[in-house]
Amino acid sequence: MAEGRRDNAYGARRLGFGVSGPHGTPMIRPETTVRMIQHAYAMGVRIFDTGPSYGAGEAERRLGEALARLPPYDPIVVTKVGIQSSGLTKRHRDFSPAGVRRSVEASLKRLRRSRIDWLFLHGPSPAEMTDDLLKVLTEMRRRGDVVSIGVCGRGAELDIALNSGEFTHFMTPVHPGLSPDQMLRIYRLRSAGELIGIETLSAAMPRLSLPLSAGATWRVARAVVNGSWTPRSATPMTIDEALLWALTDGGAHRVITTTSRLEHLEFNINAVANPPSGRLISGGSGLSSSPS
After folding, report:
1. Which pTM was predicted?
2. Is the previous residue joined to 97 through a cis bond, with omega within 30 degrees of 0?
3. In a domain? residue 140
């Protein structure tokens, strides 16, 4: 029984909570976000992902408030650089070395941290991944402002990061709707470092609970603004099936999901912490690969 509890606690650490989307807007009260982060931590989640583009830094501020109430050296704090926002639709890109330095300094203040555990380039184009950018990222890592650097993307930018040999973390969609070429890239990334799956629930049947949650409303609004929808798998899965697929057949070391409802958060955590049968694939480098 004690071994089972350890396995379940470790399983929960394979899921990260995304402090993003509506958590950076007035759609969700700041204290509600803080309580959800605390609840996720109490259930075993240790990875918290955010970025300055979510609510012009508001999501980072909320995560910083929650982190101030948690043990200081336990959570894995993830944020991004390269895209800033002002409101729901206004975004601008800045992957210049000076812009990245300013972004990290501002994020550290909002997060109330002395370092960022995992820092991701947020959807850079291949042309934006310059030698000067790589130099400033490795300098920040040497100084201790950043522990590990990664790329969040879905195309050639991931290949560039992989070939550089400097990036250890890769964040990309992981779901059954991917093409064979995309799956091949995923397994190359996995072999080179920590593979973080996002959009893992795009293959899942939607939760049709009314009234619509803030998260569902946010996704609809974002799709309308962007003019695109995330493609679904030909065979929709349940929520728990989609999460477990990403952590087994999908090859992800971790997955990041976000929600605005506590019951959905608990369901996601329990699905990963208590898989119906078998074990998840071994973990990556970001957390211990053995239960603790």
Report:
1. 0.84
2. no
3. yes
